[in-house]
Amino acid sequence: MINSDRIFGLVVVLGALAFFAGALQIQISFLSDPLGPRVFPILIAAAALLCGLTILWKPDAEPEWPGLRNWLAMAVALVVLVAYAYALAPLGFIVPTALAAGVISYQISPRAGPAALTGACLSGGLFVVFKYGLGLGLVAWPKALFG
Amino acid sequence: METLANLYLGFGVALTPYTLFLAVVGCFLGTVIGALPGLGPANGVAILIPLAFSLGLDATQALVLMTSVYYGTMYGGRISSILLNIPGDEPAMMTTLDGFPMARHGRAADALMISGAASFVGSFLAIIGLVIMAPLLASIAYMFGPAEYFALYLLAFCTLGGVASKNQAKAAVAACIGLGIAMIGLDNSTGLPRYTGGNLHLMDGVNFLVAIVGLFAVSEVFVFIESHGSKSAIGVTIGRMMIPWRDLRATFPTMLRSTGIGFVAGVLPGAGASLGSFMAYMAEKSWAGKSGRFGKGDPRGVAAPEAGNNAAAGGAMVPMLTLGVPGSGTTAVMLALLMTLNITPGPLLFKEHADIVWGLIASMFIANIVLVVLNVPMVKLFVKVLLVPAWVLMPLVTMVSFVGIYSLTGSYFDLLLMTGFGVLGYFMRKLDVPTVPIILGILLGSFMEDALRRAMVISNGEWSYLFSSPIAIGLWIAAVGGFVAPLFLRGVLKKPPLPDTEALED
């Protein structure tokens, strides 16, 4: 088993190199200060490279990673959050919020009844609070249905 | 005398019926959020900032509301520290050391009262310290040129990385990530895009609120899914609330000493509240010597870190307001708040926006008084908040975060970005990489680069200009020292472990 910190260090080193390469791509204007827009990013890349190498050289103890089931639960939650981000504008507030809140609740404590109830209550309750209590301009239902 | 006149002005700005109403609401919400297990000041304030803006409050009102929330979360945080052994954030950790044993011995109510009083003493005196020190520091800060500012930003990153984390390299990586993210968007002086990959959404750069809410709140969701909420509440009961006058009198000198220590620790840029509560606790422990029962439920062990923590929070406002350099995660969030209000902290703030600075300071006084008044009769209600299960709490936090960011920016892209920051925050947490330097990097990145570039314009590209003034050299030395010294002190200043929940069950 490879130490997680070695992987992390490698990611940092590669990221720093990529950031450095990115800095060289920055367009330079003819109207520039003595330093220009490239130097500071290059300094950051250099510092990050140094740290990445240090982490590779002296990794910390291995953290406790979750088991496969928990990875799966977190992946489901991630997919739901991404879908929620896309769905919020076209589908209105109430339906996506109820679904997303319910699924996340289910991932934390896998009991379908309470999770569904949590989703429904949070969605309705938050809508009332946000829309009428705080006066935010939320759309309740899908735009396509109610014009 | 000028200070008193300014303070009078501040109270005039902050003491209207509507702002008082906002202060009460903020304190109440803050205490509830702070008491929720797993939520601390930084994420509590972070979730509410976007909402506060969508309400269309003006600068003073928004500041009053958020300062009240900020102090409220600090008050509320001790409730979950003492009763559940779950600190809401790093500084609150020291309170669990004696608070939780006290609660186990049936003195939960006393511990809550003592810590409340200590919080009040600590923060109240620290605000007085702030009133005295901030104008002084602001007048010194006038002498700062770009070279000094560059060194100062570096100092903030170094002390934050050196003192507040276990592994310097990882803290520095976090700072680099933050600075790197700050580079995304249009370059200030040439107007050409950097690191946008041609994506129009990135032209304006990454909104720091998106990053803060993602790193502090959304990442929490993943942590809770992993632990299946097993960290959440167990049945808690507290007895009749009596004010333990005897303990209060006995711990009063402790509170004063700890306030002093905490304030000094808070003023150091980058050191912040964790150091304040830690040093206050350790100092009090050695002061008491053999007579103390520290770690087994000594009231002084509750009073010291709470006073230290709250004093440090006030102290951390000094460099934040006068120099624009926050000393802790929560002051970084407060800096984000000011910047969203289009207020740039710094020495000029005291001249140009005197009403806002002094209004903010006045609102800190108001928030503390409201909290004491609110807390004594309502602590039982706040304790009930601990019973909210994680499977209701976490969906709630997520949805509030999403709606907050969405109503602020109205862009699905920012929601995706926030989710991404949530994932990043989870892995950082697992790998023991601090997230506060990332926030600090995003907040200060463009200021730091501007300082460097202006310094180079002044000196026409001569790098030695960075070390040309005594103040700059002093800051450089402090920066290097702050980063390196903890390597050697780590063996000496060892943090005591959290009390074991199981071992104290009997």
Description of the molecule:
Chain A has helices spanning 4-25, 39-57, 68-91, 94-108, 112-133, 143-146. The model of chain A has no long low-confidence stretch (mean pLDDT 82). Chain A is built from 6 helices and no strands. Chain A folds into 2 domains: 3-57; 68-133. Chain A is mainly α and 147 residues long. Chain B is mostly helical and 506 residues long. In chain B, 74% of the residues lie in helices and 1% in strands. Chain B contains 18 helices and 2 strands. Chain B has helices at 2-14, 17-35, 41-54, 59-84, 93-141, 146-164, 168-183, 208-227, 245-267, 272-288, 299-323, 329-340, 347-352, 354-385, 390-409, 412-430, 436-459, 470-489, and strands spanning 185-186, 193-194. A two-stranded antiparallel sheet of chain B has the order 1-2. In chain B, strand 1 (185-186) and strand 2 (193-194) form a beta hairpin. The model of chain B is unreliable at 502-506 (pLDDT under 50). Chains A and B meet through helix 1, helix 2, helix 3, helix 4 and helix 5 of A and helix 7, strand 2, helix 8, helix 15 and helix 16 of B.
Low confidence ranges of chain B: 502-506
Assembly of the depicted chains: heterodimer
The value of Rg of chain B in angstroms is 22 Å
The count of domains of chain A is 2
State the total count of DSSP E strands of chain A: 0
Q: Please give the count of helices of chain B.
A: 18
Task: Report a brief summary of the structure.
The complex is a heterodimer of chains A (about 150) and B (about 500). Chain A has helices at about 5-25, 40-55, 70-90, 95-110, 110-135, 145.
What features would you highlight for this structure?
heterodimer; A: 147 residues; mainly alpha; 2 domains; 6 helices; 72% helix; 0% strand; flat; B: 506 residues; two-stranded antiparallel sheet; 2 strands; 74% helix; disordered C terminus
